[in-house]
Specification:
Blueprint (H helix, E strand, L loop, with lengths): L5 H8 L14 H6 L8 E5 L10 H14 L3 E5 H4 L6 H10 L3 E7 L15 H13 L4 E4 L7 H20 L3 E5 L7 H11 L5 E6 H6 L4 H8 L3 E6 L1 E2 L5 E2 L8 H11 L4 E4 L11 H15 L2
Parallel strand pairs: 1-2, 1-10, 2-3, 3-4, 4-5, 5-6, 6-7, 7-10
Antiparallel strand pairs: 8-9
Amino acid sequence: MYIRSRREVLGTLGFAAGAAALSSLTSPLALAEKGTKQPKIKFGVQLNAFPIDRNNFDTFTAALVQVKQLGYQGFESGFANVMPQFAAPDEARKKIEQTGLTFFGVHIFLPAPKYDPQTFIAPASLYEPVARGGKSLGAEHLILSAIEPTNEKELQQKIDGLNAAGRFARSVGLTLAYHNEFESPTAAAELEALYKRTDPALVSFLLDAGHAYRVGIQVPSFIREHAKRIVGFHLRDYTKDGHLISLGQGIFPLQAVADTLKDIGWRGWVENEEEREDRSHTGLTVIAPAYKAMKEAFGS
């Protein structure tokens, strides 16, 4: 059973309680407000669109070369693509750095039964070596997806788990970024709770704006409210009947999102995620038009 409704959740979770001070945040907007000079918005790719063989690192670097040639500045990868390199990372890191791309983050996404039943995120026995290994390869963020809790007690367990993961990520030199993967009718309320109740010094957010849009979140206004906690975005697009389609060709409000980020002065990473329901891996065929749409929307 899911949390029953947004109204009930708002009442139950006490959203009016203030979050911890945001002074320790390192999000692009928080840094800008402190007067720290920030670069322009940067474009990245989640590598799900590429046919990467985790046992052949050359397929990974070949994908990066194509990403760079299009003009993208960075990338994010699922942990399985790079985990074989953790034992001897120096040569792999050198190859990554030679592409000129920034390794934005290493992402842990799991089948539902493999998440920790107490915290609803990856177990520490997995995220700790992934964080260490990702750092050794030059990653900047540990990105965690999760499953949805079913009640207040479980929600608090998830919050505690994210705070603990964030503390560990920070200890090895990474920033934890929570990624909203799920799309249930109650996902919007849970996402609000996580923004309000996780420790802002430990937990940042990689907002999957496409998933958020599909569960009814008004993405531009959500960004204005929570931008200080957001270190990056996933952008994806949908047809009217809910199927994934190339960015800029569907109903996702890409221009409104771009205008909002520019208006509030947010500077950070926006990543195109061109996965498909059929798990096809067509690489350049889908990330090239997405790059064009991003450039047009952001005017860069």
